[in-house]
């Protein structure tokens, strides 16, 4: 019951955010197409306050095509209103990084995958600090990077550990 309500709220917030993003770049999109631009949202109930992270890997960042971003939304438990509390990006976005192709949230930490970063992909770990917002905590890279590897196509925080999926380069 709670999950279905959060999913409805997420869809509404996601549709509104995507429509806003599309308008900002001077494009129009059908609501369903616009909603697909934000990837697999993840929800977490943190100390009774629900948070959601959603990746937008196809978003242009600072003039960089498909640099990507991840958005953190928090719900005001008193009013039920959702608001965007953070927009996270790569520290140095490059074309087709696709930052936010995967995103996961756990307490005060977000991991966002950028499968195109530096040719083989990276995962970026951001941490929330009281009073100073979100900051980059770590950059995760494949042990043996090779062109075409899609490291961080999937990334998930599982409590303390972080799991990062990598698909090998194809011949």
SSE layout and pairings?
Blueprint: H1 2-24, H2 31-35, E1 39-46, E2 49-56, E3 69-75, E4 82-88, E5 99-106, E6 109-114, E7 122-129, E8 133-140, E9 150-157, E10 162-167
Antiparallel strand pairs: 1-2, 2-3, 3-4, 5-6, 6-7, 7-8, 9-10
Poorly predicted residue ranges: 21-37
Tell me the total number of β-strands.
10
Strand order of the largest sheet: 1-2-3-4
- Give a quick account of the main beta sheet: strands, pairing sense, barrel closure: 4 strands, antiparallel
Quick structural gist:
The chain is α+β, with helices and mostly antiparallel strands. 16% of the residues lie in helices and 43% in strands.
Salient structural properties:
171 residues; alpha+beta; four-stranded antiparallel beta sheet; 10 strands
